[in-house]
């Protein structure tokens, strides 16, 4: 069995620990330099604020509504996340941190000695008390099903923060009420294709024969299909762990001599992380000497994109002339 | 006005300094040399549960008779279950406050917040009050020289 521990509205909840006055109010956390909305409280979601909404549009789109908009504080979120992960490690021997606000636990064997529902409720209560963070916990025979369960735990208070899918009937019931687009690993492109085949719920997909899946979809999708049917096959430990926060735009007004250093500083760590993932290609911005024409601004040096191969770590090719 | 300013705790560094384990005698100095073997790290000494520990800085004088003054540092452990007589950081009507807590009437739904300053009143907490205990103060740290 696997568990997914997922923080509820992570960034907003972090802020609320130190600002309890924000509870019950629509709160959003903004991206770097207060660009756009990256996290929303449930109240903000109910208002219809979408993730990615530019900050300057909020007042126009929601006139007369008092929305608390906070600048992001990633140092705080990282600290709170580390605390939560440390607590989870007290509860389970094998923990895979999947992102800043969620982690998987491999509970293999624990179902023999633990009531997993109780285990999850205890863990959620402890994280809430020690750190102040509300989390939702989903438990299932595969990671994909644990994800499904966590969504039920998050949506319905009756689960007391922990939902377990441990029988065939629970699996079918959970999937039959689960929109296909919310399944882990099924993106927008798949959704439109699936809907053209009258697959609307996760159960519609899970009940398709394997041959049908194999004929129409690539292997990663087949793995998702297997996981929905209770066969564990997605190994997050050996998956490329692209942090969504590696994609960090940084504004700078420096002339090119000064630009070189911050650019190296910002691009090297994520590139290094990606290089550690075997067989994964990545693009790295590498400062080029001045004189090359940049499409952006001729005063600035151009930057070529290097394509790296993970296993070797070396540069094996170059794509794109400049950025 | 908030009476406590909360901070997270940076526990990534350690600093172990020699520790006179023989105890500091306030009388004739004993040859403490023999006892300087052990080292003490304040993070380890003051923080039993790093996952649940936060710092606070005191603002105001409601706990002055307990020796806790404006500017003192609080070590707050959220994992400790509050008991009567504990010093707690509470959240009351939109503000953080530092008080002793009296839970002896908790069964009747009443909690008392007790200041350590005669010019402040005790505060009665009923189920209708917007109040929660944020954490229990495990240590207070006070500066002892003014010219530091």
Output the keywords.
heterodimer, A: 323 residues, alpha+beta, 5-stranded mixed β-sheet, 3-stranded mixed β-sheet, 12 helices, disordered C terminus, B: 148 residues, mainly beta, two-stranded antiparallel ribbon, 1 helix, 10 strands, globular
- Structural class by sheet pairing and helices of chain A: alpha+beta
End-to-end CA span of chain B: 28 Å
Helix content of chain A: 25-40%
Cα-atom Rg of chain A, whole angstroms? 22 Å
SSE arrangement of chain A, N to C: EHEEHHEHEEHEHEHHHHHHEEE
- The low-confidence parts of chain A are 240-255, 278-284, 286-305, 307-323
Question: How does this model look, in words?
Answer:
The complex is a heterodimer of chains A (323) and B (148). Chain A is α+β, with helices and mostly antiparallel strands and 323 residues long. Helices cover 40% and strands 17% of the residues of chain A. Chain A is globular. Chain B has 148 residues and is mainly β. An eight-stranded antiparallel sheet of chain B has the order 1-4-5-10-6-7-8-9, with no helix packed on it. Chain B is globular, with a radius of gyration of 18 Å. The two termini of chain B are 28 Å apart. Chains A and B meet through α4 of A and loops of B.
Write the layout of secondary structure elements.
The complex is a heterodimer of chains A (323) and B (148).
Chain A: E1 2-7, H1 10-18, E2 27-30, E3 37-40, H2 42-47, H3 55-61, E4 68-71, H4 74-91, E5 94-99, E6 102-106, H5 116-130, E7 135-140, H6 143-155, E8 162-164, H7 168-176, H8 188-196, H9 202-206, H10 210-216, H11 219-228, H12 256-275, E9 281-287, E10 303-309, E11 315-318
Parallel strand pairs in A: 2-4, 7-8
Antiparallel strand pairs in A: 1-6, 1-7, 2-3, 5-6, 9-10, 10-11
Helix pairs in contact in A: 4-5
Chain B: E1 4-7, E2 16-18, E3 39-41, H1 42-46, E4 53-58, E5 73-77, E6 87-92, E7 95-102, E8 111-114, E9 123-125, E10 131-141
Antiparallel strand pairs in B: 1-4, 2-3, 4-5, 5-10, 6-7, 6-10, 7-8, 8-9
